[in-house]
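Quick log. Single chain, no ligands specified.
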Amino acid sequence: MQTASYVILAAALLPAVILMIIILIRDKEQPEPPRLLIKGVIFGVLSAFGSLAISMPLLSSGLIPPGYSNSFEALLHSFGAAALPEELAKLFFLWLLLRRNPYFDEHLDGIVYSVCIGLGFAAFENIQYVFNAGDNWAFTAILRGLLSVPAHFFFAVLMGYYYSLVHFGHHPRRNAVWVLAAPVLAHGIFDTIAMAQEVSPGLEAIFGLVLLLFCNELRKLCTRHIREMANADKDNYVRS
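-> predicted structure:
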């Protein structure tokens, strides 16, 4: 019997919903207005189209290979067709969301809003992958739910972390570079490992292990960043 579309849709959206709940729980002291959180998610969906406006000219011009058959092409494709265009589009919409936002008054807020955009992008992308997987939709949903969607969450945490540091005057010149560089590097490395796994016969298990280790390191780093921002806000409450 054919699986109902709403079941597949729920499976595609569930990882993003869970991660969204996790970050909102951390922002319980002064939660952001729901309308702005929803706006952030919508901006995340729009950023998926924005990234295409950046990547398509690069691909059509031949500057970036349209596919990959070896590890070097996987590296070029990962950074040129995915990491840089996608994170640049997300950053534009994050700037658009925060440039005149009076509620951006806590260190953790930068991460919260960035995660809304990142998970909006991830959810939209995940729906496409899961629905296009055919009979393998459940496996695709589980695999991407454990790796790809959390990865976009981590990229968003990195972007929001540095965005907040710049906004609140913590070495703004130095950290301004990392607002884009950190998520692009993390995204590019993640995709390169995943793509290299596809074009490296006999090394799939090794690349798979490397990918898991990399994701775990990202998780630990982002956990520290979230804790650091939350603690900075608590210190401000105490001083005030």
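The chain has one domain: 5-239.
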